[in-house]
């Protein structure tokens, strides 16, 4: 059986038993060695009697010309009594060591059970969570230990999962609605043509034109959904001029700019941008499209850029109708529209800024928005430079 497969309580007990065994046996060995040195060794050293102790006159000492070879001292023999005492001391000591290890292991097992009780309770609470109570949160112990922090982290994860699942549910419902609307319009138009009398050529043309418009709307919607989930092609990332990028975008939106007589100022001299040009073109085009669409007649748009050692910052500010403060953090959600009726009237589907956010995130950048009702909106995009990426 592998140690890692045992319960944590048992593993802690085995670890403590091993530590006690090493400590106790080491201490016992040291005691036995010390006892032999202190109490046994002095008794085995032979006592040498001097001539004064024997009551005789000391003999004169003569120094021979050649010193004699010293003989080895006699090896003293250990008395049987001392051997028996040593055996009794060692056996008694090892018996005490075994009792200490056993009692220490039992005590460790009981203490570990009490210490791990919050973990056990937390595990039981988590096991009771299923698909019927997926967002149920666990109780946080009053202590400020690791178990309390683990419970707080688990509850935070549950809230994130709930938010993610809710967003996914809303996305699915909104996507189904957006896809269903043009399909229902096409089917309704076809039924009108079929229910009437023999249709004329003009009626056929009108039906085909309506069907084509709804088909194009479906195509754009599907293309936008695919673009949101498309991976960044790192091989296609290059450094190019931000001024040329926005000149290309503004040329595509020239008709919309002229229709509302909007003044656009571009200050992007010597500002480089690194990334996949097609994706960034779409991202900034969506921001400018909204800045024009929701702007006031005779309004203005300012596009400025600043270069930093690690990032490039591009700011797009307009004088439009603005966004409510409580909705600025929701405008990047898929299919979200501040004013659904107005967005539908202007041909929006709520995916433009979601695609922009996805593109900026794929480039490891960031996008922030500041807005005030009736005053305008400012988007600030930061993109890393090529030197930072590599």
From TrEMBL:
Subcellular location: Cell membrane
Domain Histidine kinase per the UniProt entry, residue ranges: 174-387
Reaction(s) the record says it catalyses: ATP + protein L-histidine = ADP + protein N-phospho-L-histidine
E.C. no: 2.7.13.3
Top EC class for this record: transferase
Cell membrane found in the keyword field: yes
Keywords assigned: ATP-binding, Cell membrane, Kinase, Membrane, Nucleotide-binding, Phosphoprotein, Transferase, Transmembrane, Transmembrane helix, Two-component regulatory system
InterPro entries: BphY/WalK/GraS-like, HAMP_dom, HATPase_dom, His_kinase_dom, HisK_dim/P_dom
HAMP domain: residues covered: 113-166
GO molecular function: ATP binding; phosphoprotein phosphatase activity; phosphorelay sensor kinase activity
TM region positions: 12-35
SMART domains in UniProt: HAMP, HATPase_c, HisKA
Amino-acid biosynthesis listed as a keyword: no
Annotated Gene Ontology cellular component terms: plasma membrane
Record GO biological process: cellular response to phosphate starvation
Database matches in Pfam families: HAMP, HATPase_c, HisKA
Membrane topology classification: Multi-pass membrane protein
Name of the molecule in the record: histidine kinase
